[in-house]
Amino acid sequence: MGKYACMLTGPAGAGKSTLAAALITHAQASGRNVHLFNLDPAAERFEFAPSIDIKELISLEDVMTEMELGPNGGLVYCFEYLMDNLDWLSEQLSEYNDDYLIIDCPGQIELYTHTSLLSRFINTLSTSFNYRVMACYLLESNFIDDVNKYFAGTLSAMSSMVNLEVPMINVLSKVDLLKKGEAGSSRHLIARAGRTGKDLERFLDPDPTLILSEANSHNPKFYNLNKAIVQLIEDFSLINFHPLDLTSEDSVGDLLSHIDNCMQYGEDEEPKEPKDMDMGDFAEAEE
Ligand SMILES: Nc1nc2c(ncn2[C@@H]2O[C@H](COP(=O)(O)OP(=O)(O)OP(=O)(O)O)[C@@H](O)[C@H]2O)c(=O)[nH]1
């Protein structure tokens, strides 16, 4: 075995910590050595005790008080401090040599899209510590509520992929809310929008023509902008979403094998196609 790290990234509240706990529980149940690395200096409580915790080196709260910085400046300070204290990182990592790390990242998307802080950290993990690194970018299922939100989410995922420069799986999290149709949930909104289970497939693996026609019917004024965004999504061919339903062990297992395949990419075999979720679930819930 080698050294593997999976970074869980995505906006605040997307479900990174919950997914980290689910992945670790699932992997440990099948006898694998998987550990949680908390990379969020502001994390307050853990569903799963981290084996490595950046808060043992520096905490956002202390930085904000002592340096009189706001949350964003404080976060930048914490990451720079981490990069200046690689001996701490080295000591922590030395305990987990042949293990798999799940790295729970902060929810400020600026870290993934606007700054090089996280990509520098990833680069250090792979070049100085020989880790094979990949990332999951989580977006909540309510991002498919309307096409404008979907564009915003897709562009943020794409920008992270370009910025972090590691193999990345885009995950549509909290899919259980879509199926349950809880009042006020995205499932409710999808019903109002008249979407069917079949329609949702085009958001998981974007169909440019259909998405463009929906965008134009919502915002005909922005025809050229809609066209340019859809063209960008199509040209990059990078975006598709893996639906994640944490209420299903199979769904967690599927994502874990998808992560394994992605980690192996370029090592000794081509990644296998992920098994998609049965979209019939959505169609049934619709009725
Ligand atoms: N229904 C449902 N709720 C979820 C799921 N995953 C997470 N949640 C809830 O969403 C909220 C945020 O989840 P977290 O795992 O803390 O999200 P996070 O991305 O780590 O959040 P930050 O640390 O703020 O970036 C919590 O209340 C979770 O219980 C899911 O799959 N389904």
From TrEMBL:
This chain belongs to the protein called GPN-loop GTPase 3
Q: Give the residue ranges for region: Disordered.
A: 266-287
Q: Which InterPro entries match?
A: Gpn (IPR004130), Gpn3 (IPR030228), P-loop_NTPase (IPR027417)
UniProt entry keywords in alphabetical sequence: GTP-binding, Hydrolase, Nucleotide-binding
Q: Which GO terms describe its molecular function?
A: GTP binding; GTPase activity
Q: Which Gene3D superfamilies match?
A: P-loop containing nucleotide triphosphate hydrolases
Q: Per its database record, what is this protein's job?
A: Small GTPase required for proper nuclear import of RNA polymerase II and III (RNAPII and RNAPIII). May act at an RNAP assembly step prior to nuclear import.
Q: Name the domain of life this protein comes from.
A: Eukaryota
Signal peptide bounds: none
What is this organism's lineage? Eukaryota, Fungi, Dikarya, Basidiomycota, Ustilaginomycotina
Assembly and oligomerization: Heterodimers with GPN1 or GPN2. Binds to RNA polymerase II (RNAPII).
Instruction: Determine if Calcium is one of this entry's keywords.
Output: no
Can you tell me which family this protein belongs to?
Belongs to the GPN-loop GTPase family.
Mind telling me which Pfam families this protein's record contains?
ATP_bind_1
Q: Which organism is it from?
A: Meira miltonrushii
